[in-house]
Amino acid sequence: MSKSKWLPLESNPQVMNDYVYKLGVSKDWAYTDVLGLDDELLLMVPQPVKAVILLFPITENYEKDRKEEAKKIQENGQEVSPNVVFFRQTISNACGTIGLLHTLASNTDVIKIGMYCIF
Fold first, then answer.
1. C-alpha R_g of the chain
2. Which GO terms describe its molecular function (predicted)?
């Protein structure tokens, strides 16, 4: 049996917007690039912001820090808001789609899915 493959979703706001609009998300909402964290650059980000998808490289330092943080959480516990939705990614190349699902599922109070679905 061959291993399932997932087509990666390009890290491009227009591609992401097209994808979620086909899922039925209203065009009142949109993904956009954040060009930096300086105050002047953040002023260019449309408001309100309901979620951020962060792209970053997985390095040895990241893995070391991630393992240390996981150990602390296991030892001390962690309080997580009941409003946060988390999906563990187990499929290679699905990080873009999983990121989009996180943004939508964590904002069901304001972002409605399916009202404008074209499928």
1. 17
2. cysteine-type deubiquitinase activity
